[in-house]
Structure formats: structure tokens, C-alpha cells
Amino acid sequence: MKLTLVENWRGVLLRAASMWCVYIATALEIASSAIPYAADHLPWWLPVAVLIAAPVARIISQGGIDADQ
User: Fold this and answer.
1) Residue 21 burial by CB count (10 A; 0-12/13-18/19+): exposed, middle or buried?
2) Engineering a disulfide at 47: which of 14, 25, 32, 64 sits with its beta carbon 3.0 to 4.6 angstroms away?
């Protein structure tokens, strides 16, 4: 099995729901570390919950982002 990138990999990174989960979790972690006010109001488990949602978002059909086509 040869691993290759999909043709529109930039579009996939921009529009894929699973990637948005990763982006949001990263932003939440940065906010809780960089902004003291945010650390007081963001629960520690929120970025973890968003990351757990990423594989679920990956298997949901997202119409138009199919890598096989």
C-alpha cells in the first residue's frame, strides 16, 4: 500500500470537520496557557473532549470532501 496525498489536500485541511476539531482544541489550549483570564474560565477537559470528537467527525460524511473522488 502506497501512501499518497489527496489532490486537494489544502481544501481538505481547510474544510474537513475533523481538522477543525484539532484547530479548535489547539486554540483552546493556547488560550488557556497564554491568557490568564481564559484559564480561569475554560475547564481542563474541554480541549480533550474536542480532540475526542475529531475521529467521530472524520467518519461522518461531509459531502464534497470525499478524498476518493
Assistant:
1) buried
2) 25
Cα 65–Cα 68–Cα 69 angle in degrees, nearest 5: 75
What was the pLDDT predicted at 68? 53
Tell me the per-residue pLDDT of 38-60, one tens digit each, with 9 for 90 and over.
Answer: 888 889 899 999 999 999 988 88
In SS3 terms, 31-42 reads as HHHHCHHHHHHC
Q: What angle do CA 46, 47, 48 make, to 5 degrees?
A: 90
Torsion of CA 45, 47, 49, 51, to 10 degrees: -150
Cell numbers standing for residue 51? 480532540
